[in-house]
C-alpha cells in the first residue's frame, strides 16, 4: 500500500472539501467542491484518506457511500490547475503525485466494509479511478463515466489502472484506456464499469439504500468478514502491478506531449471562465 506523501496541503480547504455523516449503519461521504466540479486536489485527497481511515476503526458500520455534491459531477478528475506545477519525475512518482493519490485510493480499498460510489454526475479521469477503487458503482441516469486520461496524453495517475484491468481484463482495459471515451450510465453498465443505474423517477439515494440493504441487514462482523475475503484478493492483484503503473504514469506525465495537451485544456477552461454569461 502507498504511504501518504509530504506534499503540502491546505488544511482549511481540506476540512471544507469533504463532508461525512453516519446514519442507519452507513457512513455517507461527500466530496464538497461543486464549484470545481468536485475536482480532486491534494487537500481533498488528504481529507478523503482521513475519513476512510477513521471509518476503518468504526465497528458499527455496515457500508460506506461516497458521492459528490450537487448533480453535475461525482469527481471531474485531478485538479489540473494545481497539478500543473508538478513537472519532474520526482514530482510525479514515488512519494509524490502518484503515491499521494494512491494512498487515498488504498484507504478506500482497505475499508473493512463495502464501499459504494454513488455517481451523481460525471466521473472522469482521476474521478473514474476514485470510483473504481470502491467496491460498487451505482449511477444516476444522467451520470457519465470515463477513463479520459489519454486525451491529456497520460495514463492512470491515481493507481486505478490495476482496478480497471481486474474488472474488465487486460484486453478490454487497454481498449477503454486508449479510446478515452465518456460513457453514459447505461453504456458504462453494459461494459461492466457500473453495477446499476437507478430508474427514472427513483432518486439515487433511494437506489443506493436499496442496494446496500443486504449489508445493513447482516451483523456488522459478518459484513466485515465478507469484505475481508474480497479485499485480500484485490491486494494480491494490485501488489504485482503498482510499480509498473507508477512508472507508466511518470513516463507519460513528464512527456512534452502531455504538457501540450494540458495547456490546451487549461486554456479552454480559462476561456470558459472568462466568457460573458448570456
From TrEMBL:
- State the Gene Ontology terms under molecular function: catalytic activity
Q: Which InterPro entries match?
A: ClpP/crotonase-like_dom_sf, Enoyl-CoA_hyd/isom_CS, Enoyl-CoA_hydra/iso
Q: Which Pfam families match?
A: ECH_1
BP GO annotations: fatty acid beta-oxidation
Q: Which PROSITE patterns match?
A: ENOYL_COA_HYDRATASE
The record, for Gene3D superfamilies, names: 2-enoyl-CoA Hydratase, Chain A, domain 1 (3.90.226.10)
* Protein family membership: Belongs to the enoyl-CoA hydratase/isomerase family.
Q: What is this protein called?
A: Enoyl-CoA hydratase/carnithine racemase
Tell me what organism the protein belongs to. Answer: Paraburkholderia dioscoreae
